Amino acid sequence: MLFNLPVFIHLYERLNSRNDGRCRTSNPIHYVFQTDQSPSSLEPNRASRRAMSSAATTPPSVDKVDGFSRKSVRKAKQKRSQSSSQFRSQGKPIELTPLPLLKDVPAPEQPELFLKKLQQCCTVFDFMDTLSDLKMKEYKRSTLNELVDYVTVSRGYLTEQAYPEVVKMVSYNIFRTLPPSDSNEFDPEEDEPTLEASWPHLQLVYEFFIRFLESQEFQPSIAKKYIDQKFVLQLLELFDSEDPRERDYLKTVLHRIYGKFLGLRAFIRKQINNIFLRFVYETEHFNGVAELLEILGSIINGFALPLKAEHKQFLVKVLIPLHTVRSLSLFHAQLAYCIVQFLEKDPALTEPVIRGLLKFWPKTCSQKEVMYLGELEEILDVIEPTQFVKIQEPLFKQISRCVSSPHFQVAERALYYWNNEYIMSLIEENSSVILPIMFASLYRISKEHWNPAIVALVYNVLKAFMEMNSTLFDELTATYKSDRQREKKKEKEREELWKKLGDLELKRGLRSDGIIPT
Amino acid sequence: MQHKSKMAGADGDDSLYPIAVLIDELRNEDVQLRLNSIKKLSTIALALGVERTRTELLPFLTDTIYDEDEVLLALAEQLGNFTMLVGGPEYVHCLLPPLESLATVEETVVRDKAVESLRKISQEHSPVDLEVHFEPLVKRLASGDWFTSRTSACGLFSVCYPRVSSTVKAEIRQHFRTLCSDDTPMVRRAAASKLGEFAKVLELDYVKSDIISLFTALASDEQDSVRLLAVEACVSIATLLPQEDLETLVMPTLRQAAEDKSWRVRYMVADKFSELQKAVGPEITKNDLVPAFQNLLKDCEAEVRAAAANKVKEFCENLPEDSRETIIMTHILPCVKELVSDTNQHVKSALASVIMGLSTILGKDNTVEHLLPLFLAQLKDECPEVRLNIISNLDCVNEVIGIRQLSQSLLPAIVELAEDAKWRVRLAIIEYMPLLAGQLGVEFFDEKLNTLCMAWLIDHVYAIREAATCNLMKLVEKFGAEWAQNTIVPKVLGMANDPNYLHRMTTLFCINALSEVCGQDITTKQMLPVVLKMSNDQVANVRFNVAKSLQKIGPVLDSNALQTEVKPVLEKLDTDTDMDVKYFAQEAISGKYTTLSIFFLYEVASLGPRSLLVVLVLCQTHRSTMCPAECVSQCER
User: Does the keyword Repeat apply (chain B) (predicted)?
Assistant: First the structure.
């Protein structure tokens, strides 16, 4: 379970380049067709409808009295909303006694002053009240800045007593219950995220913590007493933060912890599992999925071979079901990366992965279907021919359905497979199996599809097949009509069978009253 | 039962319904077809007969549980109703294996449905079968490897516990205890959500010894999603315990939950506050819940304040009578006053939806002195929802102090809402108009609100115009036809000459709504001429609405007017160039003739009781509004 260094570094660079705090989009796909609620379901009395789910993660929406103006109103107000969530005790102004600068005291006294400063920074301010404690807020900010510089450049400051104080200061500042989301159905693609109001301090605390973890003097063997399972658990919960800047820092923090604390690795993986499972099966709401997947991508890369059963289970029972989530587009790129990582490690996993994707194949969401097709192509790019043979039948049955999708983007995406040289070569090798599966839909679309671009693509595909295996192609063309008739006949037989069964039920229901529930 | 099931078994005809064909249907490649087949699984079982269902169909189902979740969901549901199809209660345990597999599936809906079916068929097990077949299944699930089976197990303990021997009971308790401290939060959540239900079937001693410790542990779980579920359980547990134990066993945990650092938990406490209050009784309410409630009303998270604000009325209502007023006046009202000017509109509107209810509890004097200023403040609130909530609850206050007290501030609020930019707000206020009119009286109404009601008729949103016509009808019901004739009918009819055809149509819609309440005289003399004149309108929509209107008001008119005035116009419209106009004219003519023919029937009815019956039937089929009353008068004769 070694950490793969190049990926690690690559990730680190990307993290750093993003630390400017700007919101980013991880995925180029942006067609979201949001279903608006029908007017009839919108009652003026919102209070009566406010049934909160048992998990209570869906706070009430912004004013919903008028179903039509909601989006536009929110667009109009450009101001970013802020929120904070410190369970604060209201009232008294906070007083901190200013301390001298670290560089102004002699070296032997520095460690103690360092501790004192850490203790001062445990004080948490209310940033929702923009007017309170202005002086002290500024003082804490400058102290934190000083601490950041100090851990970066100084030597010999990290005494054993410093560890608990650092962890305490970090915990006091970053661990908090995240505030309720501003809007009912927060859609990360549409809505502006609510930003953390206390960011001026929080950012410096994160910055300080990362420098601390990366410091040359940092000793995991001492730190592990304080950075324990409970600490990690709380850290993971923060990934739900709506503020993308915070999630970016958290990603780096968690990555460092995973890298340095071997004893916590299994625990971290398990807790991420739990977060994902809850996300998939309970709430469908968690803001940090993409970030966690990004970390997992590099973790998977470092897995030793042969893969442990635990890791395979994670793939099949957690990563694959993640595809079913409504907001897939927000983390699909990272998810697909993880999947491909697994397959590159162990090609034998190809079959369960592809079967899993086929099982969860989207039925109504064309946008998701396009994503699935994209991921499938990534998988096919690395598939071994022996694995391909195992799944070609169910796979091409699905592709044949996609090709005949009335949504041209879906059909187009599927037809692009034939532009992929490697996939083409696989198809060619197995044309005797694939051609019969694909033929009927291709033939039909070439005559019926509404979109001329699709028809043109289909002609190319048909042409390719004809060149591949002309005898089979001619055969299939010849039998196309009779095959359709046979299908129709079968359909009729089915209907008759069910009619008979229905009659029987009626008869039985009448005759032996009481025995058979109707 | 044995005999019957054999008969049913013999009925299964091998040659007609070979199992292979049926199973092929269940395996069809097309998911939709497979789903359809599964939904008709009972038919297949019927065809096979009980014995082959048991020996062939169920094993097949058990073996092939890897399918689309949608199919599995249908299967899980079907199996819950399968008892008779496998041969009655003595064979019901045959259904356990497939349901057990379904209870381990990942997809929550499937699993929940499987558990639901298992709970259902558990009732059909004999006590012996329950111990031999059902309970072992629960144990297997409870100790399953993957979390899904363990979550499913949580829902099954309470159904088998009451009907098994004491040794098995002890085992069940042990399993439940283990699951409450499970490694995965998913399982702990499932256990926490079933804690209350399980406590209810336990003997009181075990509630005290087992459940309380589990409850305490879950309520201090590291995950707030678990802790908040413990709040729900708290209600059931508190109900089960004798009063004297509550203080030591439940209250520490409840106090802690009310001050939990996670707003979700506090929200849950606020949301369940009335239930909690009832469960712990008046004494504890006075000493503990009142301060807790105050804190929730002052919570830093708007979510929590809104949930608590929603409960203000219920909480006050359920306070012990002897100290109710003092508690409200000294503890609750100060917080309520602050909420009136809360920064969050959801909090204010939650409060506005219940605050009026306090007046009945506090009586006239207190209402005038303390509540009235709050009502008035909320009536002026910047958020329309708040104002609307106040207005929609005016009736509570009316009972206590009369609406007049409010009228001065009511009016500006109503006027503003009536012109709100959101049409749903306007719609809501229109709906309260009849109520307000009734309470304010005709004079006040004429003076202040009449113009508003007329203005809605020319709103640019159809739904508002429609509601406005309906509103007029209700007002006429309240104030009478004479009032209508003097105040609204002239204005409505005046709109018939409006250049905007939508407004002209509104005249017609108003006439449709008003003709009946205004009576024959006004309809014939004032409205009908206008309608008839509009049949020459240049817009086809207006013309066919004339036809529709004539059909509508037909029953109110006398037969003379129908014959001499309405009929010619409809016949003219029947020759219109527009096909819609023609269509509705024809509709009206056939409808009109029914009305006309009813006059004939009416004559018949006077011939005798038997023919009267015929008439009544005919009247019902034609739904004439006029006839029944006429017939009734005939009956009386």
Answer: yes
